[in-house]
TrEMBL record:
Signal peptide: none annotated. It comes from Cryptotermes secundus. InterPro entries: DUF4817, RNaseH_sf. Residues 4-57 form the DUF4817 domain. This is DUF4817 domain-containing protein. Pfam families: DUF4817. Coiled coil: none annotated. GO terms for molecular function: nucleic acid binding.
Length: 336
C-alpha cells in the first residue's frame, strides 16, 4: 500500500491527540480510512518516524534523498568501471546506490558502454594447495606407467533427472495479459543413476543402479554386484587381455568388499585411492567420463523423455550411437 501525505498527516495528528499511544493511532487509522481489522497499517517504528520528521521539518511530506544523476557521462562510466572492478560480486543496485546514480543508468553503462554481462557463479569443491600438486603427480604417473597398447577403462556414475531438460530461465509467455500459467513439478523429480566405463576401444554401459525399477543409492554391495555381474562379462565379450581400471575415491568404490573384488580382477592394474596407482581426490574432471556425461545429457534431453522408461531407453540409444561402436550386448554394453 502506498502511504500518502494524507495518511501521514492523520497519523501524526492521532499520535498527539491520543497521548503518544501508537495502538490507538493504528485503531483510529483503520477506522478513518476504512481498513479491515487485519488490513495493513504502519507499525510503531514508522509512526514514530513520521512524527519525528514532522517535528524536524514541520511537514509530513516525504523528503527526497536528492536527485540522482541519470546521464551516462564519461566520468560516470569510469566511476562504474572502477566500482565494479573492486567488488565484482556486489549487485548492480548496490553499486548504483554507492555511486548515487540511477539503477537504469547503471545497467545501461554496464551493458552498452562497458559490455559487461552478469554471470552466474558455479560452486565447486574447494581445493587445498596440496591438491593441485597431487593432481599433477597423478597425471605424470599415468603418463609414465601406462603402456600405450593397454586399454584404460575410466568409470564413473551420474544422475539423469527426468526434469533435467527444463530450463525455466528461457521459459517465457508473450501475451497482452498475464496467463497465470502454473507448471507444477515434484520437489524431487524421478531420476536414474547411470554408470559407464569409457576407454579408447569403446564404452561399457550404461548400467543402471536400481531395484524394482527405482533408482537406488550406490553402496559397496551394489557396486560389487555391478563389477561381477555386468562389468566382468562385458570385458569377456571384448576379448581383451589385461586392462587398467580407474575409479574415484567414493566410499562405495573404496570399501573393503569393493577393493577385494577389484584387486582380484585387476591385480597391479588398478587406478584408485589405495590402488596400484593412487587417484587424486577432488578430480572428476581428469577422467574422460566428465566429458561423456556432458555430451550424453545434452543429447538425451533433446528427446524430452516423459517417464523413467523413456529416459533409460534414450540413454541406451545415445550411448549406442558412439562412433566406435561395433556391437551391443544384451545388457547394453558397447564394444569395439
Amino acid at each position: 500500500m502506498r502511504w500518502t501525505s494524507e495518511h501521514r498527516a492523520f497519523a501524526v495528528e492521532a499520535y498527539f491527540s491520543n497521548n503518544h499511544f501508537y495502538v490507538a493511532v493504528q485503531y483510529a487509522f483503520r477506522t478513518h480510512f476504512g481498513i479491515k481489522p487485519r488490513g495493513p497499517v504502519r507499525d510503531r517504528k514508522s509512526i514514530v518516524l513520521w512524527v519525528e520528521n514532522f517535528r524536524t521539518t514541520e511537514s509530513v511530506v516525504k523528503k527526497s534523498s536528492g536527485r540522482q544523476r541519470t546521464v551516462t557521462t564519461p566520468e560516470n562510466v569510469e566511476a562504474v568501471r572502477q566500482s565494479i572492478l573492486r567488488p565484482p560480486r556486489r549487485s548492480a543496485r548496490k553499486h548504483a546506490v554507492s555511486l548515487d546514480i540511477s539503477n537504469h543508468s547503471m545497467r545501461r553503462i554496464l551493458h552498452e558502454h562497458l559490455n559487461f554481462h552478469p554471470y552466474k557463479m558455479v560452486v565447486v569443491q574447494e581445493l587445498s594447495p596440496c591438491d593441485f600438486q597431487n593432481r599433477i603427480t597423478v597425471c605424470e604417473t599415468l603418463l609414465e606407467n601406462l603402456p600405450p597398447d593397454t586399454p584404460v577403462f575410466f568409470s564413473n556414475e551420474a544422475h539423469f533427472h527426468l526434469s533435467g531438460y527444463a530450463n525455466k530461465q528461457n521459459m517465457r509467455y508473450w501475451s497482452g495479459n498475464n496467463p497465470r500459467e502454473l507448471h507444477e513439478r515434484p520437489l524431487h523429480s524421478d531420476k536414474v543413476t547411470v554408470c559407464c566405463a569409457l576407454s579408447r576401444v569403446g564404452v561399457i554401459g550404461p548400467y543402471f543402479f536400481e531395484e524394482d525399477n527405482n533408482a537406488v543409492t550406490v553402496n559397496s554391495q551394489r557396486y560389487v554386484d555391478k563389477i561381477k555381474n555386468f562389468f566382468e562379462p562385458a570385458l569377456e565379450e571384448l576379448h581383451l587381455g589385461n586392462v587398467w581400471f580407474q575409479q574415484d575415491g567414493a566410499t562405495a568404490h573404496t570399501a573393503r568388499a569393493s577393493m577385494t573384488v577389484l584387486r582380484e580382477k585387476f591385480p597391479r592394474w588398478l587406478i584408485s585411492l589405495r590402488g596400484d596407482i593412487p587417484w587424486a581426490v577432488y578430480s572428476p574432471d581428469l577422467t574422460p567420463c566428465d566429458f561423456l556425461w556432458g555430451y550424453l545429457k545434452a543429447e538425451v534431453f533433446k528427446h524430452r523423455p516423459t517417464n523413467v522408461l523413456q529416459l533409460k531407453n534414450v540413454i541406451r540409444q545415445e550411448v549406442a550411437q558412439n562412433p566406435v561402436q561395433t556391437g551391443t550386448s544384451e545388457n547394453g554394453c558397447i564394444s569395439a
